Amino acid sequence: MDWTDRHCRFFLRQLSRHALLYTEMVTTGALLNGDHERFLRHDEAEYPLALQLGGSVPADLAACARMAEDAGYDEVNLNVGCPSDRVQNNMIGACLMGHPALVADCVKAMLDAVDIPVTVKHRIGINGRDSYEELCDFVGQVRDAGCRSFTVHARIAILEGLSPKENREVPPLRYEVAAQLKRDFPELEIILNGGIKTLDECRLHLETFDGVMLGREAYHNPYLLAEVDAALFAGTGPQISRTEALAAMRPYIERHIRNGGQMHHITRHVLGLAQGFPGARRFRQLLSVDVHKTADPLALLDQAAELLRGR
């Protein structure tokens, strides 16, 4: 949340044409009671694109799924993995793993409402409900409701005592549990998530799973995605350079500024583009600090681009 907004996704799409992109989690309340056009807004260049929903009321989720389909999204994903206290209090996220029948009802309502795929992202368990038998019970009930694609974060979520950040790091990764799930549910699409950082790891996991999801690594080291099309999708054409990727963002940034936006709304997402190169610190400073002080943000963008020249 607060990371993969529409500006971030537009940038990531410059790097990979084929990877499926996900929105940040949007709650049903935000769509039904708030500014739904703002939350659903996206550029057609972002496709293929999935809207990630948070909620637990079947009728509300069905209504939001219809909104997603009408807005052009390719998929609706129900988040049953977020461990934050804020969402738990509203029966959203990982706490729903303790209520598999409710999740099944939610999925069925969404599937009955739309023609696009409805998928579920979840943990391998939560504290107090972390046995493999309980995981199979959860997946089995949701499968019986019609879901055919599950993205499995291969950690349990500890719902008391750990922050969301700690829940992404402290509970150990257990890829073997997710692999057993694929063996026991071979008819389902099982996508692995959690701790994956390199394309070599992606290739290794794709020997077992139907897909892999990259989270933090794709954000902090975005140029990794530039290698994905050729390596994993048999893409054609030359790989885009870092310089070309930033140059492709310039017209988008110009439009955003003309429409009253600020450049840092966008450039905060490209800071990792210079990772590992001399000048990376200056690149980040220009686009995250100096950007707030300049009267000519596009000139600042051009300075940053010079630091990437030839890369």
Report on this model:
This protein has two domains: 6-223, TIM Barrel (Alpha-Beta Barrel); 242-308, Four Helix Bundle (Hemerythrin (Met), subunit A), CATH 1.20.120. The mean pLDDT is 94. The longest helix has 17 residues, at 242-258. The chain has helices spanning 6-15, 28-33, 36-40, 58-71, 85-88, 100-113, 132-144, 164-167, 175-184, 199-205, 216-220, 228-232, 242-258, 264-267, 280-288, 297-308, and strands at 21-22, 26-27, 49-54, 75-80, 118-126, 149-157, 189-193, 211-213. Helix 1 runs antiparallel to helix 13 (242-258), helix 4 (58-71) runs parallel beside helix 6 and helix 6 packs parallel to helix 7 (132-144). It is an alpha/beta fold and 311 residues long. Strand 5 (118-126), helix 7 and strand 6 (149-157) form a beta-alpha-beta unit. Strands 1, 2, 3, 4, 5, 6, 7 and 8 form an eight-stranded parallel beta sheet that branches. It is globular. The protein has 16 helices and eight strands.
- Average pLDDT value? 94
List how many beta strands DSSP finds: 8
Known CATH architecture of the largest domain: Alpha-Beta Barrel
Can you tell me the CATH topology of the largest domain? TIM Barrel
Order of helices and strands: HEEHHEHEHHEHEHHEHEHHHHHH
Estimate the strand proportion.
5-15%
EC number: 1.3.1.91
Binding site for FMN: 52, 121, 153, 193-195, 215-216
Cofactor: FMN
Organism: Metapseudomonas resinovorans NBRC 106553
